[in-house]
Amino acid sequence: DVKVTQSSRYLVKRTGEKVFLECVQDMDHENMFWYRQDPGLGLRLIYFSYDVKMKEKGDIPEGYSVSREKKERFSLILESASTNQTSMYLCASTLGVNTGELFFGEGSRLTVL
Amino acid sequence: AQSVTQLDSQVPVFEEAPVELRCNYSSSVSVYLFWYVQYPNQGLQLLLKYLSGSTLVKGINGFEAEFNKSQTSFHLRKPSVHISDTAEYFCAVSDPGGYQKVTFGTGTKLQVIP
């Protein structure tokens, strides 16, 4: 089975702190994604990556950056956390072939105080 | 840009009753369509997908969906729900080409009442 692991399930940070959210997948998937989930808004794409060291902006990239130094790992970085970044963050991956099916981690719930 | 509309934010239904969760998408070109389910405190998992072929798609846990191109709809159905079906359901769409960027709807919370 494909496994997508997010390093932290729950985090509490203070405004202005730098935050790292880590995601690792074990199935050699080409594409990896970071979504943010908020009540009533569904999932919104922050960034995605289709190869090592490659990244593309999603629909809401402002305030975020990403890093993909190895194929299996995709990190989301909040350079200076703000209260409006309190949310559930979901990492996902998919094969490079055209199936469109995403495999999700269990999510990281971030609270910024 | 593609968009997905899930008009019902919450759907209460009695156990063993049928349910339909509605989904409409905006794209007029070829699309891939998906339904994902999210149980409390978990990530999303795929229920079913439409890539091509038969417009009636069967998924896990007794769910099915019908692709209707003329109405740009992909409604999810189950003839008899169980308590364990209580969850949030997301409809999603992607382009057949490109980097498989998937656009999600806002979700529908299904509450099964004993």
Q: Uncertain regions of chain A: pLDDT < 50 for 5+ in a row?
A: none
Mean pLDDT of chain A, to the nearest integer, reads: 92
- Structural class from helices and strands of chain A? mainly beta
Q: Secondary-structure element order of chain A, as H and E?
A: EEEEEEEEEEEE
Specify the number of helices of chain A.
Answer: 0
Structural class of the secondary structure composition of chain B? mainly beta
Largest β-sheet summary of chain B: 6 strands, mixed
Largest interface: A-B, 26 and 26 residues
Mean pLDDT of chain B: 91
Shape of chain A: globular
Radius of gyration of chain A: 13 Å
- Estimated radius of gyration of chain B: 14 Å
Helical content of chain B stands at under 10%
Strand content of chain A: over 45%
Poorly predicted spans of chain B: none
Total beta strands of chain A:
12
What separation lies between the terminal Cα atoms of chain B?
41 Å
Main sheet properties of chain A:
7 strands, mixed
Percent range for β-strand residues of chain B? over 45%
Q: What is this entry, summarized?
A:
The complex is a heterodimer of chains A (113) and B (114). Chain A has 113 residues and is mainly β. Chain A has strands spanning 4-6, 10-13, 19-21, 23-25, 31-38, 42-49, 56-57, 65-70, 73-78, 87-94, 103-104, 108-112.
Core attributes:
heterodimer, A: 113 residues, three-stranded antiparallel β-sheet, 51% strand, B: 114 residues, mainly beta, four-stranded antiparallel β-sheet
